[in-house]
Amino acid sequence: MNATSATFELLGDRLTLAVLRDAFLERTCRFNQWLERTGAPPAILADRLNALVLRGVFHRVPQPDTPERYEYQLTELGLSTWLILVCLWGWQREWTAEGAGEPELVHEQCGHRGPAVVVCWECDNHITARNTVVEIESDAVWSSTSGARRRSSRLPSQPTQSGDMQFNTVMEAIGDRWSALVTGYALAGARRFGDFRAALNVSPTTLTDRLSRLCAADILRKCEPGQQYRPTARGMDLFGVYASFIWWSGQAFPDATGRGLIIRHRLCDALVEPVLKCRGCNSRLDRTSVRFDHLRTQ
């Protein structure tokens, strides 16, 4: 399995992202706490946590008060998923109605509130789908995902806390392997039904369904003549999300059989390593220099 496909298989569902969200924002670390917050069936939650432990995102430690039970603590690899979560939050904040009710990202140094800019680590310039080149390894995505375990995003509705960070809308683009791959290929330049079909070796019925869903979600649009599918402005702005996933895949799966997708920045010809920059003071951000405010002023 290549690194990109393995990453979407591991992280690309609503429950897994909710687990990571709560670990960062609420310092959730116990199974029963996630059960209460997510409303997920215990068996499915246990499956997700076990997968994250096996990949090294969490490690288990005995609970101080009940040693026969465990807490789940983020590893260094787990802490690096912060970039993905912030990019997901930024997209939802900018492009969805529910984003207005989410917590605000605050830069501690200057007090700026709101989404950051995704820039290139090498040259410090803004990275977008228009100033980058996505390189796709031949046959890599299909060969690694054809036998992948199916993950359902149709879980019970999560209890919504005041100012909670939700990922419901973005699941249309990354909530299952085919939606994620179709969106990724569209950002990489695929336009026609046959292009997607040849690259993914997906059944016509499945591909038609995912293209229809993505068009209904205003992530792609169907253009006449020629039956082309092009990313909308909303879809194009998912580029930062995909860049963060692809960068993380190299950290999480260094021994995978290929990267699957690689992004190169046209302005400096470097492989993209995304970094966040504050729109207020123009300085680079990391997880220790920002906070999420749960209580919004009216």
List the helices and strands and how they pair.
Blueprint: H1 3-11, H2 14-25, H3 31-38, H4 42-55, E1 58-62, E2 70-74, H5 76-79, H6 82-95, E3 104-107, E4 117-120, E5 132-136, H7 140-145, H8 171-174, H9 177-188, H10 193-200, H11 204-216, E6 220-223, E7 228-231, H12 233-236, H13 239-252, E8 261-265, E9 274-277, E10 284-285, E11 290-293
Antiparallel strand pairs: 1-2, 3-11, 4-9, 5-8, 6-7, 9-10
Helix pairs in contact: 1-13, 6-13, 9-11
Task: Identify the quaternary structure here.
Answer: single chain
User: What portion of the residues fall into strands of 2 or more residues?
Assistant: 15-25%
User: What is the overall number of helices?
Assistant: 13
Instruction: Report the uncertain regions.
Output: 143-154
> What is the CA–CA distance across the termini?
48 Å
Mean pLDDT over all positions: 87
Q: Helices and strands: which structural class?
A: alpha+beta
Query: How is the main sheet built?
Result: 3 strands, antiparallel
Radius of gyration of CA atoms, rounded to a whole number: 19 Å
Order of helices and strands: HHHHEEHHEEEHHHHHEEHHEEEE
The backbone outline, from C-alpha atoms, is globular
Strand order of the largest sheet: 4-9-10
> How many β-strand stretches?
11
Helix % is 40-55%
Which short descriptors sum up this protein?
298 residues; alpha+beta; 3-stranded antiparallel beta sheet; two-stranded antiparallel sheet; 13 helices; 11 strands; 41% helix; globular
